[in-house]
């Protein structure tokens, strides 16, 4: 194992690259590998068939890089404040999950990881290899983050940190560097069940378990085709993703706001007009999605989601005027 000062160098370079947290885990089989297998076998991944592919790699990150010894996991805040919207005509608007308010996180985080790897190659003696992963490689980032002490996996299955909350992106550098691992953090969810009871579609069959096929994020972003009729009313005004289980989490009450300029709010924004989405042409869609992670949902999916949100707006009774 390398000297402890190499570990400190890793943490220092992560901070200088602009990451808000950094932890280290061994490149070894996942502690909860059996849970992932059971989750997939139960059909909890919905139509995300890609989750079944390369399962042996997902269960052991060492398969992602020959000679891998360590996984460096980083977190990058994207927590932001939505601007006030003044709309005198009261036209219905949809809601977009916070992670898609700014520029595409895949590119932002991966660029920082590559810069960090270049610095490590320059400053650590030896011929070391690195592979950057940001939500596209068959790596279960949340399990790696928990193992690396970046946060604990909460009852809503997201990674939580008692200071950062949960509004952050995860990235990883799998490396042949042998580094001293960090200790996992204790679970601080306690007796709180706010996220479980707040979920509009009942996507949590039990604490720490999620049925993705019922999750609004899955339905609006991953699911192709029509959305089951019995779930549409519960989707409310969400047109891309969902933040409900994060909005009610006590650990997000004092979460800091991101200082990353790339995560500043851009189109389509937090609350796009539903009629504008429904009127988008292919060219409009490409313009709106340029440089955004929201392009994960295709044009027909955005319009499908907007139609459901508009139907829900029509069926929601207006609040009575104050007396």
Question: Would you mind describing this structure in some detail?
Answer:
A hairpin with a 5-residue loop joins strand 5 and strand 6. Helix 1 (4-16) packs antiparallel against helix 4. The protein is built from 12 helices and 8 strands. The chain has helices at residues 4-16, 33-41, 55-58, 105-123, 141-147, 194-198, 216-222, 229-232, 244-247, 274-279, 282-289, 299-315, and strands at residues 21-26, 70-77, 95-96, 130-133, 152-153, 159-160, 168-175, 238-240. With 323 residues, it is of the alpha+beta class. The termini are far apart. The longest helix is centred in the middle third of the chain and has 19 residues, at 105-123.
| Helical segment count | 12
Segments where pLDDT lies below 50 for 5+ residues? 319-323
Find the count of extended strands (DSSP E, 2+ residues): 8
Distance between the termini: 71 Å
Average per-residue pLDDT, rounded, comes to 93
Largest beta-sheet characterization: 4 strands, antiparallel
Q: DSSP strand (E) fraction?
A: 5-15%
What radius of gyration results from the CA coordinates? 21 Å
How do the strands of the widest beta sheet line up side by side? 1-2-7-4
Encode the helix/strand succession as letters.
HEHHEEHEHEEEHHHEHHHH
Q: Tell me, what's the shape?
A: globular
Helix content: 25-40%
Assembly form of the protein:
single chain
**Structural class label:** alpha+beta
């Amino acid at each position: 194992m390398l000297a402890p000062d190499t570990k400190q160098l890793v943490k220092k370079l992560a901070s200088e690259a602009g990451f808000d947290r950094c932890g280290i885990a061994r490149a070894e089989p996942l502690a909860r590998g059996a849970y992932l297998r059971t989750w997939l076998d139960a059909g909890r991944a919905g139509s995300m068939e890609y989750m079944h592919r390369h399962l042996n790699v997902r269960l052991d990150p060492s398969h992602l890089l020959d000679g891998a010894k360590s996984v460096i996991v980083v977190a990058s805040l994207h927590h932001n404040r939505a601007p006030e919207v003044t709309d005198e005509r009261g036209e219905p608007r949809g809601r977009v999950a916070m992670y898609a308010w700014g520029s595409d996180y895949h590119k932002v985080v991966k660029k920082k990881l590559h810069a960090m790897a270049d610095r490590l190659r320059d400053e650590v003696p030896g011929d070391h290899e690195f592979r950057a992963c940001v939500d596209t490689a068959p790596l279960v980032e949340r399990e790696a983050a928990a193992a690396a002490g970046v946060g604990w996996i909460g009852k809503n299955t997201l990674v939580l940190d008692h200071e950062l909350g949960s509004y952050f992106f995860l990235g990883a550098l799998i490396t042949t560097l042998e580094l001293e691992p960090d200790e996992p953090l204790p679970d601080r969810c306690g007796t709180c069940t706010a996220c479980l009871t707040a979920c509009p579609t009942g996507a949590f069959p039990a604490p720490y378990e999620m049925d993705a096929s019922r999750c609004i994020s899955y339905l609006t972003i991953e699911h192709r085709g029509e959305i089951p009729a019995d779930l549409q009313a519960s989707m409310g005004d969400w047109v891309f993703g969902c933040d409900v289980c994060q909005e009610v989490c006590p650990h997000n009450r004092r979460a800091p706001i991101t200082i990353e300029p790339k995560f500043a709010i851009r189109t389509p924004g937090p609350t796009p007009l539903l009629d504008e989405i429904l009127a988008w042409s292919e060219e409009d869609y490409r313009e709106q999605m340029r440089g955004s992670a929201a392009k994960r949902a295709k044009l027909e999916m955005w319009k499908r989601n907007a139609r459901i949100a508009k139907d829900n707006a029509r069926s929601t009774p207006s609040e009575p005027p104050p007396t």
